[in-house]
Automatic annotation (TrEMBL), chain A:
Record's keyword annotation contains Transferase: yes
GO cellular component: cytoplasm
Domain of life: Eukaryota
Family: Belongs to the protein prenyltransferase subunit alpha family.
Pfam families: PPTA
Protein name listed in UniProt: Protein prenyltransferase alpha subunit repeat-containing protein 1
GO molecular function: protein prenyltransferase activity
Keywords: Prenyltransferase, Repeat, Transferase
From TrEMBL, chain B:
Gene3D superfamilies: 1.20.5.110, Longin domain
Keywords linked to the UniProt accession: Coiled coil, Lipoprotein, Membrane, Methylation, Palmitate, Prenylation
GO cellular component: Golgi apparatus
InterPro entries in the cross-refs: Longin-like_dom_sf, Longin_dom, V_SNARE_CC
PANTHER family the UniProt entry points to: SYNAPTOBREVIN HOMOLOG YKT6
Domain Longin: 9-128
The protein, known as: Uncharacterized protein
Classification via SMART domains: Longin
Stored CDD domains: Longin
Location of the protein in the cell: Endomembrane system
Length: 433, 199
């Protein structure tokens, strides 16, 4: 082939840079018209690596012919030792140019399985790929595959995984999420990591809450960030042993103008009354945790963002999520499964089947009517425990004030506020008059 | 992302605009493309200033970017390039403040013949850094809605700012300020607008 020796040289020089520079920061393909200067297309400067785009079509052609020659024998593990050793640099080149080719990633997996590639080096390489293509699902999947192997190996030997692995992943995903907007691949990967590592490092949750608060403050219109935060909040619901974050508690009491800032349980009693006798201590501390997290979100996080950045629908949707969960947690605490709030979108979350079927018809009817006309009277006729609690008073006051304040803004903001008001009245059943 | 990319001061002469000073923050751009992106931002600033009449403000939305322009009655012009999340009001407040300070430091008689390298106005870089966080910036200036009475004209894309019959592609192709590499960057960047894709 005409360009094979040139391609070979380019791939070898990429390989040697990656092998020797452990602090390599990123890789990119630099668009150029053609090879006018007759010099190497590999750019390397202060830990940044680049490849000029004119050479891509020749090099990629070479890579494909070379790789597909050995594809079959590699899969059947019949490849000669020497060829196996000498495959990685071509694979790296191929994935640099086109990270979407799953076949190349699979060939890498086969090399890892036969111990020809090390974990460290592969983590480093896939991180480099993600600096060029932040949304490469294949690269994230490859990392998960590597992590799974590590986790399995460790659990077999009875060793807990190291926090270094997790921290590395968190750094990689946050860089990728900053790099491209709406990078769901990165956040999915982060969620996967949290699910797998949280049992070993429960303290990490408080840190993640802090991180995600900062992140949504810097990316106010990105649903991905709010989605991740909602995932974290849900963790508070399911994990009982998680420790409360004191800063949140102080902020909440401050914003509610309460002075009993020594005993979190007092806050719960003030808002929802004395705990029912059938609840265990563990249960109660779970309620305290989740209440504080949700109230902090409602009173501090959303307020802060809304003061500065208006006209972003995701923030309003996030508020809906928080409010809906507050109502649901309150109902659960008060032992009242038949509350109006279950008519919301997430109605399937937590209540038993019996109550669902007996009220099922009423629920669907109401929801259908909601789309057409206002039918709030049905809720008013049945006041419940939640509606006579202090929490309900506090929330309705806050929501009324929040809506009025935002109606004074621009037309878009007013529209969003009105829509939220309607949702509160008709779906959640708040009395805002 | 709430971010400011570029803050520049230009002088709008009778036929063309000249740069007096500019500051950029290209941390998020890959190393080998910073030069091209910088050139391209400067090109945009100039293009937009030349098409804004004196004593007016414009905000142009182009994809995920916002470009805010303020040309004063004395033809001193300021441009901010930010992303779409950065609050518009803060951008325009920043422009007013920077231009006021600039005209205090450097006499207006010298503007038409100044060259960028002769201007010493290091405050611009520190403003760009400080205003990255609009919250802190607002506390600093204490200006909530003190913008002057000038109406801000809002455009939904850069095409709306250009004169009749002009096209951005043609302007880029004709431009003398953009190097070959920046032009190649422009054509490839147009093809791969990754924010809206799943991949």
């Amino acid at each position: 082939m005409e360009y094979s020796s040139m391609s070979e040289r380019i791939l070898r020089s990429l390989e040697s840079i990656i092998k020797n520079d452990l602090e390599l920061e990123d890789f990119t393909i630099v668009p150029t018209e053609d090879n006018s200067k007759n010099k190497s297309p590999v750019l390397y400067e202060s830990h940044h690596l680049g490849l000029e785009s004119w050479c891509v079509k020749y090099v990629y052609q070479y890579i494909c012919t070379e790789l597909f020659k050995v594809r079959k024998s590699l899969a059947e593990k019949k490849l000669g030792y020497l060829i196996g050793e000498n495959l990685n640099y071509i694979l790296m080149g191929g994935l640099f140019i086109n990270p979407d080719v799953n076949t190349f990633w699979n060939m890498k997996r086969e090399l890892v399985e036969s111990d020809k590639l090390g974990y460290e080096e592969e983590f480093r390489f896939s991180k480099l790929i993600l600096t060029r293509k932040h949304k490469s699902n294949e690269a994230f999947a490859y990392r998960r595959w590597l992590l799974k192997r590590i986790l399995e190996k460790m659990s077999k030997n009875g060793i807990p995984p190291s926090i270094g692995n997790l921290e590395n992943e968190l750094a990689v995903t946050s860089a990728a999420a900053d790099g491209s907007q709406n990078n769901y691949h990165a956040w999915t990967h982060r969620i996967w990591c949290m699910e797998h590592f949280l049992p070993y490092f429960p303290d990490i949750l408080a840190r993640e809450m802090h991180f995600s608060e900062k992140w949504i403050n810097e990316h106010v219109s990105e649903n991905t960030g709010y989605h991740y935060r909602q995932f974290l909040i849900n963790l508070f619901k399911s994990h009982r042993q998680l420790v409360m974050i004191p800063r949140y508690f102080h902020e909440v009491t401050k914003r509610l103008n309460l002075f009993n800032d020594d005993e979190p349980i007092q806050l719960l009693i003030f808002l929802l009354g004395k705990p029912p006798k059938n609840k265990s201590l563990e249960d109660i501390s779970k309620y305290i945790n989740i209440m504080i997290v949700l109230l902090y979100e409602l009173l501090a996080v959303i307020e802060n963002i809304n003061d500065m950045f208006t006209e972003h629908e995701c923030l309003w949707l996030h508020r809906r999520y928080i409010l809906y969960n507050l109502v649901q947690i309150a109902d659960e605490y008060l032992g009242e499964p038949n509350n109006t709030a279950k008519q919301g979108k997430n109605a399937s979350i937590c209540f038993n089947h019996e109550s669902q079927s007996s009220y099922g018809n009423a629920v669907t009817n109401i929801v259908n009517e909601n789309c057409e006309a206002k039918q709030p009277k049905i809720f008013k006729s049945q006041p419940n425990k939640f509606q006579s609690s202090n929490l309900y008073c506090v929330l309705t006051e806050r929501e009324k004030e929040f809506i009025t304040r935002n109606c004074a803004g621009s037309a878009t903001q007013m529209n969003l506020a009105r829509r939220y008001e309607k949702w509160l009245k008709l779906i959640v059943g708040f009395d805002l008059t | 992302m709430v971010k400011l990319y570029c803050l520049s001061i230009l002088y709008k002469g009778p036929t063309t605009a000249t740069w007096l000073k500019s500051a950029v923050d290209l941390q998020g751009v890959s190393f080998f493309q910073r030069g091209s992106v910088h050139e391209f931002m400067q090109f945009c600033c100039k293009t937009v200033v030349e098409r804004t009449i004196a004593a007016s403000r414009q905000s142009v939305k182009q994809g995920e970017y916002f470009c805010h322009v303020y040309v004063r009655a004395d033809n001193l012009a300021g441009v901010v390039i930010s992303d779409h999340e950065y609050p518009q009001r803060v951008s325009h407040t920043l422009l007013t403040k920077v231009l006021d300070e600039f005209s205090e430091k450097i006499p207006s008689s010298s503007w038409p013949n100044l060259q960028e390298k002769d201007v010493t106005f290091p405050q611009l870089t520190s403003y760009l850094a400080k205003y990255q966080n609009p919250r802190e910036a607002d506390v600093l200036t204490k200006i909530q809605s003190e913008l002057d009475e000038t109406q801000i004209i809002l455009h939904s894309n850069i095409q709306a700012v250009l004169n009749r019959g002009e096209k951005l592609d043609d302007l880029v192709a004709k431009s003398e300020e953009l190097g070959i590499q920046s032009k190649a960057f422009y054509t490839t960047a147009r093809k791969t607008n990754s924010c809206c894709n799943f991949n």
